[in-house]
Amino acid sequence: MLSKNLKGQIGETLTWVIATILIVVVLIFFILGSSLLGNTKKIGNFHKSLTSKTTFEGTDAFLKKSLFTYLLLQSETKRTLLENKLWKMSVDGKFNLDFNETKKDLVLKYDEK
Amino acid sequence: MKNKKGKLLSVYWFAILVIVSVGIVLMVNTFYSNPYDVREIESEIISGKVADCVYYGGKVNSELVNINGGFREDFQDKFLEKCSLNFETEDELEKVAYYTEAEFFTEDDETKSVFFLSGGNKNWKVDCGADLKSENLAKCNEKEFYLRTSADSIYLVKVLSIVGKTSENVK
Description:
The complex is a heterodimer of chains A (113) and B (171).
Chain A: H1 2-39, H2 48-51, H3 61-72, H4 76-91, H5 99-112
Chain B: H1 2-33, H2 39-54, E1 55-56, E2 59-60, H3 73-77, H4 79-82, E3 98-106, E4 113-120, H5 125-129, E5 139-148, E6 154-163, H6 166-169
Antiparallel strand pairs in B: 1-2, 3-4, 3-6, 5-6
């Protein structure tokens, strides 16, 4: 009778001990998670899906300035030279926007004026 | 006997409550004690401001060029003021956390600059060339664009902006 009671007591205590350990482990896991998330707090590095062309128009003032220069140039030779340079910069990934599409857009707007 | 067990259980639940509360406080504290790093965006904004100040809507700043189409040296002396940039800190002993420069190259030689504008704390420039990647280094933003003067000549303008402010942005 006494042995059965002792066994029951041990079993019950063990359940509580395991439950406590589980609670502590889960808490530690969440604390580590929040610490990791805290380190990624950066403004500017947005997820690609957020900045994709379908969801976000975006802009590149530097590309647009260069394209303005391209459109305003009077010498055709200089225009071609500049276009090649801009194309090379675009290949090197120096622009945030697609070079050809932005150029097309600006040319259309410029012609409308 | 039963009463004693009940008391023990109450103490246990109280202990769990304390552990969980402390855990939540720790979680919130670790997440919110890390500051937001806005230096990249800040440097991009400064670069954009400098570029707009130099060349806007296809026109070069009238205060930057003289009648002959050359660059005016006096613009450099008041570069930050003319471009509405204020890098000064409230505390005079605190070092300036920003630096910006704009280099002008002719279309024929894009290696040797013909005109140079700069403002802020030049010491931050060392961080830009560093090979190692560390959050404690200043954030640099280098952009370039082509401008056209009224004489139909083209210049390549390289704009570099640096934001130090590591203590405010990195834990």
